[in-house]
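Catalogue entry: protein
Contents: sequence, fold tokens
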Amino acid sequence: MSYLPLLTLMLMLAENSFAWSSKYQIMSRGTMPPLFLSKPDEALYTSADITDTIRKESVQEMEKVTEVVNTCSESRRPLLVGTNNAFGAYVNNNSIQNFLFDCDGVLYRGTDSMPRASQTIQQLIKRGKKVFFVTNNAASTRMELKTKLEKVLNCRGILKEEMMIGSAYVAGQYLKSCNLNKDSGKKTRVHVIGTAGLCTELQSAGFDVSGGQDPVDTPSGMSRDELASYPFPEGQIDALVIGLDNDFNYRKLCIATVLLQRNPHALLVATNLDAFDLVGFDARHLPGNGALVSAVEMASGRTAINVGKPSSTLSELIMDGYGLEARETLMIGDRLDTDIKFGNDSGMKSALVLTGCTTSSEIASVLKDDESSQMIPSLIFPHVGYMLDDATSEN
């Protein structure tokens, strides 16, 4: 039997596969070409591809938003910004000097930057505007957030740690302001549900921390008998802080519940109450910290103090701590219930971008609901690239 026809067929498939792979830039030197082809998936897209896709999707969503806004009463209509010059005029007319940016969904999505986000941030800073990054993400320290922004936005050398206002840092500052154990002279003890970043920020604020990430061999469950015999090495606590914990489990819930039971005067603090985040190219809902907080609240009968957006606690820390005037400040975000409400409740102007969680249908619901007026943004534009003062820019 001759194998020549089969060998020829295999070589033809390999050649065609190599051509397809070269087109989509998935071949590497010394790698054998695949013999069987399949539709390219999201993992094969380059960062530039994803950024351009986000740009196009946000512009398309803006068209839907325009239709929605034009149907509502004029008194409730946010300003729709369609050009860079229009945004510049708004900033000048309202004497905006301070810019507060949410991060994920506004400046980046995962590890991919939003359209022209880097140029926008650099231009604002170089023009002497005060720029801050305000995120409900409690997983990172201020330095870790700064490092990520520098990498994703490619703007090393101009960002400073004091520009970073993460909810982990805010939780520490809030607890310091409470002057816990001031009279006794004892070091304040804080139990944490959350990541190493949250623990680090609280330790940096001067607190003795328990909880956080468990050793890898720690069981995730806890039986009735195990809870009954658990020795609680955490001891007496003065506060319990909840940040998003991807390893949250029934064991952590049991320990937190009894700690609050044994320490009725301990503060229960939430870094944020976000319901969900978006992941993947098809925008899947990833449960947020609000889901964890609700579990602890239900089990303990306590109500958490929220120090993230849209809380007044965060607003006071920013305005007083950095000497800002709310009327000269613009909050830029992608969520109506956190970013936009935070800006409006605090007396700032608020800007919604369409690169994150909010859709035209959600905007329509808010515009029709009289009780949701605090979630109506001052202005809307597709992405942060529209903030760039550049008459020749193509958005």
